[in-house]
Design a protein that fits this description.
A hairpin with a 2-residue loop joins strand 2 and strand 3. About 40% of the residues lie in helices and about 30% in strands.
Length: about 300
């Protein structure tokens, strides 16, 4: 009788402590468990075997969802912390112009590592979340993208050349990386690199560079400085005198075939519906944020790997 009362009290206390989340599951489990436990005999130790089963059942029902909820809250908090660290460090512009301090860089890297530990996608290379349009937010020290961007800013002041945007579109096993450059605040041009992506494992991918394209510049005549308008007019007149095949080729942009001669391996260390983190073979991180709404979470993932 004493054992029955103590077991019932323990179950009542556990149900009262965890009744807020979820509200119905623990109570249902306790009621069914108590009915099963009342028909068992008492062991010499004074503890019923069924009491142990009841106690384990309550813990699994309540602690499972609570642990998952707590982990999800931790992940969302880590994401917000990383985005705030980007803002405090001056963002993409602050990084490529060299205005980001060493303390800010190490702070961002620390938050990147913290978020990677909470990756919710165990097989990101075959996840539907990988496809879409992504914006580069952060490059680790030594990243090829950061080196190229810094080279542009160190050689030319912002009034002459300015990198306005760097993004990538991933679709059907291919990627297009676009870098938008503005010259003299009036001439806009884009350099696009097309690559092929091959899945080599749950986390690892291979990227082969296929083609580079210098798009024909777009000119805003009203924004051209007064001292350059004469030169611009001469250039336009010269272009109009070119043969039609050449003009068409120039209008279509300058293509640079790469033929897959350049490639790299990288690992996806974090992926969800908003953030993508990759690391190259040397471990340097690149962080991207999604620009489009993204696919439905119910989309079918890729199931085959290519080696």
């Amino acid at each position: 009788m004493a054992s029955s009362i103590s077991t019932q009290s323990l179950l009542v206390v556990r149900s009262s402590r965890t009744s807020s989340y979820p509200p119905s599951s623990p109570i249902f489990s306790l009621e069914n468990s108590k009915r099963k436990c009342n028909n068992h005999t008492k062991f010499p130790t004074g503890v019923r075997k069924s009491d142990r089963k009841c106690r384990a059942m309550v813990q699994q029902t309540v602690q499972g969802p609570s642990a998952a909820y707590a982990k999800e809250m931790e992940r969302l908090s880590a994401k917000e912390s990383l985005l705030l660290a980007f803002k405090d460090a001056g963002g993409f512009e602050g990084l490529i112009t060299g205005k980001t301090t060493d303390m800010q860089q190490i702070d961002v890297n620390e938050r990147i590592v913290g978020l990677e530990k909470l990756n919710p996608t165990p097989r990101p290379t075959t996840s539907p979340y990988l496809e879409g349009r992504w914006n580069f937010e952060w490059f680790g020290s030594g990243s090829p993208g950061l080196v190229a961007a810094k080279f542009l800013f160190e050689r030319f002041p912002p009034a002459i050349a300015n990198l306005t945007k760097l993004d990538v579109v991933i679709k059907d096993g291919y990627a297009k990386i676009s870098a938008n450059v503005k010259l003299f605040n009036s001439i806009e041009s884009s350099f696009i690199v097309s690559t092929k992506l091959s899945v080599e494992g749950p986390l690892r991918m291979k990227e082969e560079y296929i083609e580079g394209l210098f798009e024909s510049p777009k000119v805003n005549e009203e924004s051209i400085p007064e001292q350059l308008r004469g030169t611009f007019g001469q250039a336009v007149s010269t272009m109009q005198q070119l043969p039609v095949p050449i003009k068409d080729a120039v209008a279509g942009g300058l293509k640079v075939p790469l033929g897959g001669s350049v490639s790299r391996l990288f690992m996806i260390s974090y992926l969800d519906e908003e953030i993508l983190i990759i690391r190259d073979s040397s471990g340097v991180p690149e962080v991207l944020t999604r620009l489009d709404p993204g696919p439905s979470p119910l989309a079918e993932p890729i199931t085959e790997y290519e080696s």
